[in-house]
Amino acid sequence: MAETMSTGGVKPLLSLHNINMTFGGIKALKDVSFEVLPGEIHCLAGENGSGKSTLIKIITGVYRPEAGAVIEYDGQTFSHMSPVTAQAGGIQVIWQDLALFPEMTVAENIAFHTVIGRWPRLVDYRHMRRTALKALQRLGVALDVDLPLKDYSIAQRQIVAIARALVGEAKLVFMDEPTASLTQSETDHLIDIARSLSVSGVAVVFVSHRLAEVLEISSRITVLRDGALVGVYPVEGMTQSRITELMTGKTFNQQVRAKPVGDEPIVLEVKGLSRPGQFEDISFAVRRGETLGITGLLGAGRTELALSIFGMLKPRSGRVWLNGRPVRFSSNRKAIEAGVAYLSEDRLSLGLIQPQSIADNLAIASLDRIKSGGLLSDERKRRLVDRWIADLGVKIGRQSDAVSTLSGGNQQRIAIAKWLATDPKLLILDAPTVGVDVGARAGIFEIVAKLAECGLAIILISDEVPEVYFNADRVLHMAQGKMAGWFDPRTCSLGQIEAAVYG
């Protein structure tokens, strides 16, 4: 039986009972109950595939639950919601992909709903501008609303999405992985905004795989597992390990994996690498079987450094050696041919081609390896895909299925497999767990550890200090494009690195 906690007599803003949903004979939700109090910050937790998104889509009217469902919202009772009813009632969702328009101005993104109606009419741009400025002022944020959205960072776009929700007179806002692409300082700002919404009476449902944030911001946590309600718990007295256990039904023991690799041959050596405005005078070496962690805040130059090693950006000065030979890649294609692989931090748009098949995504970087007589061989591709899906434990239906049908964790495994299929000497992992749940994260880092054991040199980039602390042999801290310090996880504490990075 699911565990629940008392609401202290406060009448819920939203209350759901007997929610069931089936897709293709598979139960996505099994008799789930869920409630949110007015002005509450509530966490909805669970692994990918646990039913979180399905539940949100039922609340917002995208899906219609099976017969017997009861939805009570703001004093009214429904058997199901419609998108129009949900929006009219002030239910807003900020999805992970934000669903914004990069080419349109900030004002247009925030206020475009105000000009949508049943009949054509002239657009009052001045009114849209005033509406946008008012919404941003409520959040305590100043942005130039006349600039196109594409000119702003992902953190600022997140704020624009929240401002758009406020224009809709939001009473209940769902935030789906809002911090997945944010640095620690940007995350802190977003958490402050969520708190200010709560104080103003707006209820916030926070969906995040970053459990530290869940504990910091929420008052209660609803946990789903395999489509069923595990329970509703107070944050007080809760720990990350306990939430992980509730979400997965398993216990994970975090241990420092760092090991000595000083006797192994150097695979990559970088000396004095600089690119004005992004990073300056960076020097380090990565040995065979070593995992080098690189961490730092926004603007530290981590990704730009990785892209320079991978041939995507051109450094102004400095030298790079691969297996003792000097290299200067003119393109990422040359880097791949030399044995360098790079897993992008943006899996959705850069790491994978979402509409394409699982097989095509996995094989796309290894086309030369699956040729026969100058043509691509379906049989060789099938064998290649079979091998890496088995080796990395990817859960799929058919190779021909679109990669978008997979969970975030399995998509990330396909993205890693794509590069491992090129037989690299050096693998650069840039934020490999973005948007991946805690159970899948553990699986990804098990893969990283096994790859290192097999002799692969790895650079692990993350702004989450625990990821590099527990999974790297050495940690390089970058700040404002410069090397700020080195750490050995065997001889320092997690708190020491966090203090250095987060200040």
From TrEMBL:
Q: Pfam families, per this entry?
A: ABC_tran (PF00005)
Sequence similarity: Belongs to the ABC transporter superfamily.
This protein's UniProt keywords:
ATP-binding, Cell membrane, Membrane, Nucleotide-binding, Repeat, Sugar transport, Translocase, Transport
Superkingdom of source: Bacteria
Q: Note the PANTHER family from the entry.
A: CARBOHYDRATE TRANSPORT ATP-BINDING PROTEIN MG119-RELATED (PTHR43790), XYLOSE IMPORT ATP-BINDING PROTEIN XYLG (PTHR43790:SF1)
Task: Tell me the ranges covered by the ABC transporter domain, including all copies.
Answer: 14-251, 256-503
Keyword Isomerase attributed = no
What name appears for this protein in its UniProt entry? Lipase
GO MF annotations, alphabetized: ATP binding; ATP hydrolysis activity
